[in-house]
Amino acid sequence: MDLPNVEISLSTIDTERWGVQSARARNVLSSNLSKALQFCEEHSVKFLTARCPTSELKSAQDMEQAGFQLMDTLVYYSRKLDAVTIPEDTGQVLIRPVRSGDEDQVRSVASDSFKGYFGHYHADPRLNRKDCDDTYTSWAYRSCISRDVADEVLIADMNGDVAGFATLRLNSPEECEGVLFGVAPSAQGKGIYRSFMIQAMHWGIAQGRTRMIVSTQVNNIAVQKVWTRVGFEPSSSYYTFHKWFD
Ligand SMILES: CC(C)(COP(=O)(O)OP(=O)(O)OC[C@H]1O[C@@H](n2cnc3c(N)ncnc32)[C@H](O)[C@@H]1OP(=O)(O)O)[C@@H](O)C(=O)NCCC(=O)NCCS
After folding, report:
1. Which residue lies with its CA nearest to atom 47 of ligand 1?
2. Is pTM, for the whole model, over 0.85?
3. So where are the chain's domains?
């Protein structure tokens, strides 16, 4: 399998959030590990988030040897949007695009639904719990107000109140992505997430995309159940490691 070179860069958002010079790296492998570490040394990085394909177990072991600690495992699923029928949305809740004025309610739903979530930040005991929760809250909020963060946000509208949100991105002329989804605890279990997935596919088709991808932690069973039911298939997976340089 052809694997691309390591992609590593400083992360402004992590640096501001955690108060230490931070970087993110993708596709770290045994063959490029020293290059990634050299980048960190040259840029005085204190906190590195690094992803490694799960197919590269030897690379993951070499990262462990170098002091990287496993924080989560991400799975990606994908689905063709052309030539495969989109299931009917049988949900009872109105799904509509975000409107100006929804931002604060989206932030509040994100705060309630992601409290104590099990992402890579929460898995790191060195990071403050409340700040970990806030990563999702601020991400959801920024998605509503900046096209640099999300190309569209869908809202579950229950009698005028925001009961859930789904942030969407256009990755390439072919591909769109369902990025961050949350449903208020009081509205969960009513099929809102399933409706979001179906409406997100319709949005992707309307944008001319032929493929949609989604990702989550491997232990997020709720979303993977919905993905398989609406026709998504597993495509790839990554370990997320943290390394602290001190
Ligand atoms: C995951 C989440 C979006 C699901 O929303 P939802 O509207 O309740 O989902 P649905 O009603 O469409 O149900 C989806 C399936 O997952 C199950 N499910 C819902 N919440 C669950 C939970 N907390 N734990 C386990 N299963 C759950 C449902 O029972 C249903 O399965 P079933 O048909 O076999 O009963 C919502 O629980 C949530 O916001 N969780 C926290 C944030 C999160 O995980 N976001 C997704 C990753 S970005």
Report:
1. 181
2. yes
3. 7-67, 80-236
